[in-house]
Amino acid sequence: MLSYQHIYHAGCLPDIHKHMVLAEIFDLMAKKFKPMTYVETHAGRGYYDLNAPEASKTGEAAEGILRMLKENWFQPTRPFMKVLKDTQRRKGGQYYPGSAAIAEYYRSPGDKMHLMELHPGEIRYLQGSFKSSAIHIQQKDGYQALLTLAPPEPRRGLVFIDPSYEIKTEYDDMPGFVAKLMKKWAVPTLCIWYPLLPSLAHVNMVKKLYALNLPKSGVFQVEFCPRPERGDGWKALYGSGLFIANIPFGLEQRVEEIQRRLRGIKKTEE
Ligand SMILES: C[S@@+](CC[C@H](N)C(=O)[O-])C[C@H]1O[C@@H](n2cnc3c(N)ncnc32)[C@H](O)[C@@H]1O
């Protein structure tokens, strides 16, 4: 039984990094006005109530999103800031939009969304928050469900893989999984999040992902290390990484702007 619940970490600095980049991808893809399918293998609960006891317990949101809002780190025109504002307007100021909420903000008529989540508590929140008939929610293993779906209609798409990496073999299994996926559905934009941990478990995974036959010009990797200090388990997380394939045009420049801003924030803390 998996125990990870993202509510403990929602709005932390690595989350901001992940969600800022994801929102930029959506914003660029939405500019084409062509229907697309969004598939998320590890969806979490969609919206996170930062007043929940689990969120207050770790204090990670205070160090992340709450500080970000107080200090205006980003222009309100940045895609994630628009999603955040919309979420707070509709649901209340204490809500933080996760990946599924970002996808829902950018969903156009004709687009489809497939959200997979295994945790029985998380899936209840997810089902309670997303009601459209274009949004399909399944309590299934996200990897297996994605392979079963591929290739979906519309074929143009974005796949987001954001595991909790509770199963140690997940790092080793990821490249083989992507290779299988590509055989069924070669064209989606693919975004894989990974934690930066002292074990450096991600290094081999990323190396093997690069070795796959992905479109070379469209592969991009970005990391942000806000917290060099070390702890145990998830407390040891010192940063956030994203491996992105088949990137939309213009993403690199936008991500560099975000990275520059985040790096500057780290400096003011030191
Ligand atoms: C990092 S959280 C997801 C956060 C979410 N993507 C967001 O940004 O809001 C990982 C989620 O994956 C779920 N999970 C773990 N293994 C899974 C699997 N094999 N298939 C589907 N969901 C899984 C966990 O229950 C957890 O909610």
SSE layout:
Blueprint: H1 13-30, E1 37-40, E2 47-49, H2 53-58, H3 60-63, H4 65-71, H5 79-91, E3 95-97, H6 99-106, E4 112-116, H7 120-129, E5 135-138, H8 142-149, E6 157-161, H9 170-184, E7 189-196, H10 201-211, E8 220-224, E9 239-245, H11 251-269
Parallel strand pairs: 1-4, 1-6, 4-5, 6-7
Antiparallel strand pairs: 2-3, 7-9, 8-9
Bound molecules: S-adenosylmethionine.
Largest sheet: 7 strands, mixed
Annotation field: number of helices? 11
Low-pLDDT stretches are none
Q: Count of DSSP E strands?
A: 9
CATH topology: Rossmann fold
- The secondary-structure class comes to alpha/beta
Count of structural domains: 1
Placed side by side, the strands forming the largest sheet appear as: 5-4-1-6-7-9-8
Radius of gyration, CA atoms, in whole angstroms = 17 Å
Architecture overview:
By secondary structure, the protein is α/β, with parallel strands linked by helices. The chain has a single domain, classed as 3-Layer(aba) Sandwich (Rossmann fold), CATH 3.40.50.150. Helix content is 44%, strand content 16%. It is built from eleven helices and nine strands. A seven-stranded mixed sheet has the order 5-4-1-6-7-9-8, sandwiched between helices. A two-stranded antiparallel ribbon has the order 2-3. The protein starts with 12 loop residues before the first helix and ends with a helix. The model has no long low-confidence stretch (mean pLDDT 92). S-adenosylmethionine binds next to loops.
